[in-house]
Amino acid sequence: MHTSPVRAILLISMIALLAGCATAPRVTSTYSDDAYTDASFSNFLVVVVAGDYNSRAQFERTVVSGLRTEGASADAYYSVVGGNKPINSEAVLAAVRSGNFDALLVTRVIDRQLDVDVASGAAGGKSTNIGGNPLDFFRYEYEELNEPENVSFNATVVLRTELFVTKDEKMIWGIESSSTDEVYGGLLIEKIAAAIVGQLRQDGFIDH
């Protein structure tokens, strides 16, 4: 498929716009057990519950990377169990025992929405070959048409993250993180994962 220079420039501009419009996720505390306010952990098992395995694995890897950067040990559930295996209490407890994890961090998606807004801009150009060498610029006729100038992908994602003490099999901390940005996919995962790890650090649960 032929891509006109005008369209290429517009696409590049759109990508630059999307990269520049990200905002920090909002984090809200949903639960905190006062009996564990001084607790900290050094070895986390990270579990993400999501329908798409590739997104789940990417999210687990990103949270694990953030925890390791903070000085803790951490492993992704998919890595411990060997791929796309069921997530249930028996399997998670077996994974906890296999790695001697002292903390279990579970994140699940509770709401998500993707809206696409398209605004038409100035006329671009569409080319049609009229014979001869297709690489010859002068063998094309050009007609004007309206190309999308601004395309906004507004992604809203809300996740709930809960921290469990494995020796007690007890939830001691919970947050909800939400973000509405003109980004979607890997960048949004990185932003929310960073917010989760940052909140764990701020609340003192990461043992350096």
Protein architecture, described:
The protein contains five helices and six strands, in the order αββαβααβββα. It has 208 residues and is α/β, with parallel strands linked by helices. The chain has two domains: 5-116 and 153-202, Rossmann fold (3-Layer(aba) Sandwich), CATH 3.40.50; 118-150, no CATH class. A six-stranded mixed sheet has the order 1-6-5-4-2-3. Strand 2, helix 2 and strand 3 form a beta-alpha-beta unit. Helix 2 crosses helix 5 (186-202). The longest helix is centred in the N-terminal third of the chain and has 17 residues, at 53-69. Residues 1-21 and 122-149 have low confidence and may be disordered.
User: What amount of the residues lies in strands?
Assistant: 35-45%
Strand order of the largest sheet: 1-6-5-4-2-3
Briefly note the structural class of the backbone: alpha/beta
Number of helices: 5
By CATH reckoning, the class of the largest domain would read Alpha Beta
The rounded Rg comes to: 23 Å
Poorly predicted spans: 1-21, 122-149
User: How many discrete structural domains?
Assistant: 2
> Which bin fits the share of residues in helices?
25-40%
- Major beta sheet summary: 6 strands, mixed
Shape: globular
Mean pLDDT: 77
- The CATH topology of the largest domain: Rossmann fold
Helices and strands, in order, run as HEEHEHHEEEH
